[in-house]
Amino acid sequence: MDVKVGIPRALFYYQYYPLWKTFFEELNTEVVLSDYSTSKILDEGTKSCVAEACLPVKIFYGHVMNIKDKVDYLFIPRFTSISKKEYICPKFGGLPDMIRNSIKDLPPLIDTEINLRKSEKNARKAAMEIGRFFTKDERKIENAYKKALESFGEFKAKVKQGVLPSDILDKKLNVIKKSNEPELNIAVIGHVYNLYDSFINMDMIDKLRKRGAKIITVDMVEDEIIKRNAGLLPKKMFWNFGSRAYGSSLHFLEREDIDGIIYLMSFGCGVDSFVCDLAERKIRKTKDIPFIVLTLDEHSGEAGMDTRLDAFIDMIRWRYKNENNVSAYG
Ligand code: SF4
Fold first, then answer.
1. What is the superkingdom listed in this entry's lineage (predicted)?
2. Which end of the chain is more exposed for a tag (fewer CB within 10 A), N or C?
3. What are the start-end ranges of the H helices in the chain?
């Protein structure tokens, strides 16, 4: 029987799953995903996690609880950096230790460090280390990594063309637009795990689509554009997400076809509170474009989300109907 590797359907699952899945399957392991996020998963996570943690980390804990007894290994890499000269949120670096110290009866964790700050070639080194959990055949690991990069490249290319990762990962393509109004292009800035987990964001993406919006996210913006725009800041941003969020905000401002911008942030997230403020100031100073900030935490109510989305979309449509005196800030 194949060895089972468990991957929690949370955090960087939304960014790297095609890479991880191909890699593990090429090494003849069976990949087992936790269930989709639910209020039960969130409750379990909240009970086992420190109260100060952000919502995405609490959900991650719940996914670990959901899957830990069904697999031989749990894949929780220790992410330090995912891009050259940049860091990511330190919670990712501490995640394997936080999980080990708060959840009992875990299977062995694959907690290899992923640190691309000095060189993106370190990804290969990490892949070799992970592969050695399952085989001594270095060539086999090399091949698995090569195939994984191909799958990842295909996934990223689809996203750059405008397909949402959640549509690929959750197989939800061809969502029908329910509104009879003209389509609006709505740019949404946020972490992958907030944008594409429909439980965390209370189905925000589909709700916007039903109201006649086409969604454009940070992940669809070309890396070169992000780099160039983030480089305009007086000081280099050392957070990967920060430069992506700021760089894409500037890009959305430059585009004439964007009808409104939403910043989706996590309550209690240090990176978001800083980056959102920076992006908001730039947006408000540069262009009279409809913009709102939506904050997610475990107490957020769906009715509140619905009301804000309705008001935001109505405001955009009213402004197009010659009511430009309607405030762009909701
Ligand atoms: S970046 Fe923010 S939302 Fe993401 S894990 Fe860190 S604190 Fe949580």
1. Bacteria
2. N
3. 13-26, 39-48, 55-67, 90-102, 122-131, 138-160, 165-169, 192-195, 204-210, 223-230, 240-254, 270-286, 302-320
